[in-house]
Amino acid sequence: MKRKNDRGFPDRAAIVAFIKANPGKVGTREIAREFGLKNADRIELKRMLRELADDGLVKKKRHTISEPDSLPPTLVADITGRDADGELVASPTEWDEVESGEPPKILITMPRRPKPGTAAGVGDRALLRVERSDETEGPAYRGHIIKVFDKTKSRILGVFRSLPEGGGRIIPVDKKSADRELNIAPTETHGAQDGDLVSVDIIRSRGFGLASGRVKEKLGSVKSEKAISLIAIYAHDIPLQFRPAAEREAEAAEPANLKGREDWRDVPLVTIDPPDAKDHDDAVHAQPDPDPNNKGGFIVDVAIADVSFYVRPGTALDRDALDRGNSVYFPDRVVPMLPERISNDLCSLVPGEPRGALAVRMIIAPDGRKRSHSFHRILMRSAAKLNYAQAQAAIDGRPDDTTGPLLDPILRPLYAAYACVKRARDERDPLNLDLPERKILLKPDGTVDRVVVPDRLDAHKLIEEFMILANVAAAEMLEKKSLPLIYRVHDEPTLEKVHALAEFLATLDVPFAKGGALRPALFNRVLAQLEGHDHFPLVSEVVLRAQAQAEYSSENYGHFGLNLRRYAHFTSPIRRYADLVVHRALVRALGLGEGALPDTETPETLSEVAAHISVTERRAMKAERETVDRLIAHHLADRIGSSFQGRVSGVTRAGLFVKLAETGADGLIPIRSLGTEYFNYDEGRHALVGTRSGTMHQLGDVVDVRLIEAAPIAGALRFELLSSSGETAPRGRRSSGPQRRPSFKAHPGRSPDKKRKPDKPKKPGKGKTAKGKSKGKGQKGKAW
Known about the structure:
Elements lengths: L11 H10 L6 H8 L6 H13 L4 E3 L2 E3 L7 E9 L5 E5 L4 H4 L5 E3 L16 E8 L8 E9 L5 E8 L5 E5 L9 E3 L11 E9 L6 E11 L5 H9 L8 H9 L9 E3 L5 E4 L8 E7 L9 E8 L10 H9 L3 E3 L2 E3 L4 H7 L7 E11 L5 E12 L2 E4 H8 L11 H22 L10 E4 L5 E5 L5 H23 L6 E3 L5 H13 L12 H11 L5 H11 L4 E3 L23 H14 L12 H34 L6 E10 L2 E6 L5 E5 L8 E4 L4 E4 L5 E3 L3 E10 L4 E9 L42 E2 L5 E3 L8
Parallel strand pairs: 5-7, 10-12, 13-20, 14-21
Antiparallel strand pairs: 1-2, 3-4, 3-6, 4-5, 6-7, 8-9, 8-11, 9-10, 11-12, 15-16, 16-19, 17-18, 19-20, 22-23, 24-25, 26-27, 26-32, 27-28, 29-30, 30-31, 32-33, 34-35
Helix pairs in contact: 5-16, 6-7, 10-11, 11-15, 12-14, 13-14
Pfam families: CSD2 (PF17876), RNB (PF00773), S1 (PF00575)
Organism: Bradyrhizobium canariense
Function: 3'-5' exoribonuclease that releases 5'-nucleoside monophosphates and is involved in maturation of structured RNAs.
């Protein structure tokens, strides 16, 4: 039977079946005759055959149509885009279009728990295991990723600049390639307009003149609002749109009710966030413990939005959340892990509205130590929405209309409980690297207004300590129940880094005892000795660089920075997938109802998840940092020739990296611009040393510089040195190795010698964006 659709036209399956049954010379005439199509139907038939060929279900060669050649079971393919549902689509890397026609499309099937090394995005090249699809809709093949190779070097991301005579130039967005423009012929523009952000294939590279490229995809205009963050989003392949199925699931979700929950609506929990926060995913409450056996102790409640109730394992929402791994925060936008219906509505603990939450109640002893804890699935109603400065002002004697009635019953007990837990925190003595965190404030047009360093308040510290307590309680509970979980781990520094730090401190006559067990207190003693000293910023930076990078793991090896034996992220499942896994595990361990961690989850499967979300976290941090660099470079582009004060933030063989005091912007002073003499790179001292004069430029030096060049698209700045606090003869040894004089590119990137750690701890307290969602608070905002 010849299957036809409602309009009497044969469907795709019928046409494909006819072509397979009649190998040989089958063309549009034969198909039209077989299905009784009129001349008026030829246009529709050609359109359908083109779609079938594009999907790889048939092969068109001149006037004949046949069954496509089969692909080998394993092959290398380039991921070229996404389909309407957001699924990745690939094409074979090696394909002869002249001989075989259009390359077939391969729909990438991603498991819910990708293995390490198999997380891929558009532009990646991967080794696939391929099988023919049974579906007649969509691509003819399904592919499973075996391994992802490094991104192809032949494709770059850049901004298209049109030329009057046609064609144009591509300005790469990568700092290290910003001066290597590409020529685009008029026939290779793919319709790109001046200012479009595009992906480009390099089609010819030569030793002299510009390399040539072909525009592969238009990604949007850099002249549009939020264009700067758009560059980072596409450069790092951060998913921007949710799959339609995930959006449908979010919109269909219903508010939580009392079914299966404890009623905590009378507990006066409050949220404390930045003033511009849109979501409020945690609330706190404290009261003196009435137990006579715990006189002077407190009961502290931390309630976290019950995301696991809405985002179930294996759903489209879960798949999108895992793919993203975390929310990404830019000064001008947020790319959330979950749709706004979940994060800004159902899971936002707004005042007066009943909301589902997972709460931990902790009994605190008078010495600040946690005596016990219990977890509860609750229905709560926030008593108030406060911001940090507002809460702090009330405690400092300046309450307003909102905080006045809350001061005695709610705020004073919270601060008293914090003073109590702070005793245990001080005794624990975690790593005390409280480096300032700058915040970019934007104008309505999305450009930089100013850069500020928010005050560090006790309100920030209060929330941070309560979040740490809750995270520890979650890890302890799951270990007690022998449930698999994802830990937040932070290894101790390597012996090599500790030895290098000791050598550096010796050049400053600062003692550093390396014997015995390595503890954060060892670093804290060094910092305490130098507090208020000129060398303090320098030593703080070097101590930071000596630390390992925090990550997620299904195996526990402790958290060195916090000086904790076990630690798991529990307090922000709206923006971190690790927290969602911990919530599900708690629901399963305590029999709290729906949304539990599946029984199929094991330490092995969670190990794969941990590896994936560690990668997405580093991806997010790099994208955020690059966006800030581009915004600041754009802000300073009209101040070429101006003088600034800053501090040397990095020393490499290429020159000195300087962080400006005014904006926190980073730029390079090329080594060849430091003077007429040669400078040696002294790695131990983090310095460049003049071979003739002994002049030393060292990490941490205060410098006056002049801005020479700014490249906003690449986020690169170039300075020249005017004066330095470090231009003195060095003590002790000098490096005697030969100086390397690299040729300076117009917009150089950071040298690999500058080990700027992506896991740099941020100032405790809730970081935030100028517009959009709150970034989190306390440990929720810290990389650790």
